[in-house]
Write a structure and sequence with these properties.
The chain is α/β, with parallel strands linked by helices. It has twelve helices and 15 strands. Strands 8-7-6-5-4-3-10-9 form an eight-stranded parallel sheet.
Length: about 375
């Protein structure tokens, strides 16, 4: 099935284009105290290494708003300031160099305060994400439409569009929209309906999705369904976890849909009674390495030499364990037999060499 992207307006967050024919961007959010500049910059740099393309930080007070300047100077990807309730913090964050802001205009305290935020956004050329969650919908809309469910997403959609109209009334159209829910089907149906009503770019996400397993499953189902329908211009996989994991899951999601590819694809067998090697440890070590690589290799970690090379014959390089000995294979053919105690080191060394060769060929091609 060929995915046909929904046509949206193009906006820019810093040096990243969003919407139109731009690549779908993977976002994340720090979980540090934003006022702790050193810790926040350190975490963002780890996110950058993982491929994160846009990062968001919480701005709950003036100290955090002022810290945006130093944080922005210490990173290379666009920085979005997340603001709730206080329009002054939104203005301060933009004055401090934020590349974008995320607000719910309806909770800023009225049109006059929204107008001040819009004036600052126009002055600093900063886009605004209208971010509505199922838990932050205005009371009058809840009374009129009810709490959002999979069968009734009207309150979510109307809240978002009301706030978009509020920005448009102030002459602002550099907008991105999100309508997040904790429920998978509410998220899918809400965004599907919203995509028919507006051509502003959409940021996807399942809010408060959960830990590594639950959060990955819920986000993958919801975002996978939407992305496969061509809906979504940026997204975040929200996990109660190190935010680096969010980025890794995000790129695997894009890879599985053949939308984008970053770094190696790792395949590994689920183990069986033939396994005579510590495959879990081996797979974890290989995974830790490939997550720092950019070469589009296919890497396999297999449990036994009986089926390993055959089942993973499409892999550019793979490793399979035996009883005291293992093999390294390339495209299904055995390349080298290695004692088990040396297997991981030899394999890692060859993998790094392949990464280096790919990089050299990429540079020469330019």
């Amino acid at each position: 099935m060929m995915i046909v992207r929904r046509q949206t307006k193009k906006i820019r967050v810093g040096n990243v284009a969003i919407g139109g024919d731009s690549p779908i961007s993977v976002q994340s959010m720090t979980n540090t105290n934003t006022a702790d500049i050193e810790a926040t910059v350190a975490q963002i740099r780890k996110l950058e290494d993982a491929g994160c393309e846009i990062v968001r930080v919480a701005v709950p007070d003036q100290e955090a708003a002022v810290a945006v300047r130093a944080i922005r100077d210490g990173i290379t990807i666009p920085l979005i300031a997340d603001i709730h309730f206080d329009a002054r913090l939104a203005v301060m964050a933009m004055e401090s160099g934020a590349d974008g802001i995320r607000i719910n205009p309806g909770n800023l305290g009225g049109e006059e305060k929204v107008a001040k935020v819009v004036d600052a956004a126009l002055c600093h050329r900063v886009p605004i994400r209208v971010g509505v969650n199922s838990g932050s919908i205005e009371k009058d809309l809840l009374k009129k439409y009810g709490f959002p469910t999979a069968h009734n997403t009207d309150s979510l959609i109307e809240s978002a569009m009301r706030n978009v109209r509020l920005l448009e009334k102030s002459g602002f159209r550099d907008i991105k929209i999100s309508i997040k829910s904790t429920d998978v089907l509410t998220t899918v149906n809400g965004y599907t309906q919203l995509s028919k009503l507006t051509d502003y770019p959409l940021h996807l996400g399942v809010t408060e999705a959960g830990g590594l397993i639950a959060g990955t499953v819920k986000s993958s189902v919801a975002l996978g369904l939407l992305l496969s329908r061509g809906i979504g211009d940026t997204f975040r996989v929200s996990l109660t976890r190190d935010p680096v994991e969010e980025v890794r899951v995000g790129f695997e999601l894009l890879r599985s849909l053949k939308i984008r590819q970053r770094g190696p694809e790792l395949i590994s067998c689920p183990t069986c009674g033939r396994t005579r090697i510590d495959l879990f440890s081996l797979a974890e070590k290989v995974e830790a390495l490939v997550q720092t690589m950019e070469a589009p290799l296919k890497v396999a970690v297999m449990g036994c030499v009986v089926n390993g090379p055959g089942e993973a014959r499409e892999a550019d390089i793979g490793v399979a364990g035996g009883n005291g000995v293992g093999i390294i294979f390339k495209k299904g053919e055995i390349w080298k037999k290695v004692a088990e105690k040396e297997l991981i080191d030899v394999f890692m060394s060859e993998l790094k060499k392949m990464e280096h060769e790919w990089y050299k060929s990429s540079v020469s091609a330019e």
